[in-house]
Design goal:
Elements: H1 13-25, E1 38-43, H2 49-60, E2 64-69, E3 77-78, E4 91-92, H3 93-101, E5 106-110, H4 118-122, H5 125-134, E6 138-140, H6 148-161, E7 168-173, H7 183-192, E8 198-202, H8 211-214, E9 218-220, H9 223-227, E10 232-236, H10 260-263, E11 270-272, H11 285-288, H12 295-315
Parallel strand pairs: 1-2, 1-5, 3-4, 5-6, 7-8, 7-10, 8-9, 10-11
N-acetyl-L-norvaline binds at residues 142, 180-181, 183-184, 274, 276.
């Protein structure tokens, strides 16, 4: 594997999930593989899970790790070419990228959508510059439109908990006070579409995701209908994608919250969320604390998804 930016960088979703589950049985088996190889993790945005799980995954492989929070202690970066840099940003991304790349073998980047320009976000303006100018393999730790390490961990988790070959998986929008990116849902849809599970997306009207991600997935605007018979409920908020509403919060309709009444419509479904989650907005206390909530094992599998990806990239260095 060269880069890990989307499901398209994986030869077969089924095999990588299998390999990940195999790796999980003995995560220290390849502790010599990454000797004298350095992973640099660059964060333009906050993180708890991605930071810790990716670092742990690299350590399991014997790699060295460097972490840089661009907004805490580094020079503020200009990202536009052609700007007269007489403002508050002393350094340009076009120098910063090759400099950072010169100290490492693999670069992982977190750079969320900033909602200033849909075109910039959906062309992955930041992470694509890392691919272009670093000369090193690049791993997305959530870019503007996708969060593939999360989706892979989600699929590993579903594979571990499912009790039938083709479970019904329902991804539901849920209310949130602030505008969130579409990266997690886009990516989840893209990865689920590569499985043969029974997959349904449900959200209020106005929250349709980009058609290139939705593909042939079934969209049901009635949440109660969608949840019927679900084996897995995957909750997530996202802001609007379509037209001039891009990046806007159109609804905080609390009737879309995942409560025990909603879970009662399902086939005793497992509850999933990528975290961080706002309790009693997205999901009620009792649902997230119930024995059907698998948010903690889901987060724990972030170590495994990062490790299988790093392993494949390091093997190819
Ligand atoms: C981010 C998002 O929704 O994309 C990161 C989730 C992994 N969430 C927040 O910013 C709260
Ligand atoms: N799920 C996830 O990516 O969490 P962090 O934002 O804490 O990394």
């Amino acid at each position: 594997m060269r880069n890990f930016l989307s499901v398209n960088d994986v030869e077969s979703v089924e095999s990588i999930v299998k390999e990940a589950l195999e790796l999980k049985k003995d995560r220290y088996k390849f502790c010599e593989l990454g000797r004298n190889k350095t992973l640099m993790m660059i964060f333009f945005n906050s993180s708890l899970r991605t930071r810790l799980s990716t670092q742990k995954a690299a350590m399991n492989l014997g790699m060295n790790v460097m972490v840089l929070d661009v907004n805490a202690g580094a020079w503020k970066l200009e990202t536009e070419r052609g700007v007269i840099m007489d403002g508050d940003k002393p350094e340009h991304l076009l120098e910063a990228i090759p400099v950072m790349a010169s100290y490492c073998d693999v670069i992982a980047v977190r750079a969320f959508a900033n909602f200033e320009s849909k075109e910039d976000d959906y062309s992955e303006k930041i992470i694509s510059q890392f691919v272009k100018h670093s000369g090193k393999p690049v791993i997305s730790m959530e870019a503007a439109t996708r969060h593939p390490l999360q989706s892979l961990a989600d699929l590993i988790t579903i594979e571990e908990y499912k009790d039938k070959p083709k479970p019904k998986v329902v991804m539901t929008w849920a209310p949130h006070p602030r505008a969130l990116p579409q990266a997690v849902p886009n990516s989840f849809v893209e990865w689920l579409n590569a499985t043969d599970y029974d997959f349904v997306i449900t959200h209020p009207k106005g929250y349709d995701l980009a058609p290139e991600f939705v593909g042939d997935a079934r969209v049901e605007y009635d949440q109660d209908v969608a949840l019927e018979g679900a084996d897995f409920v995957y909750a997530k908020n996202w802001s609007a994608y379509e037209g001039d509403n891009y990046g806007k919060v159109l609804s905080t309709d609390m009737s879309w919250s995942v409560t025990s009444e909603k879970m009662a419509l399902t086939n005793n479904a497992y509850f999933m969320h990528c975290l961080p989650v706002r309790r009693n907005m997205i999901v009620s206390d009792d649902v997230i604390e119930s024995d059907r909530s698998i948010v903690i094992p889901e987060a724990a599998n972030r170590e495994i998804s990062a490790q299988i990806v790093l392993k494949k990239i390091v093997e190819n260095l």
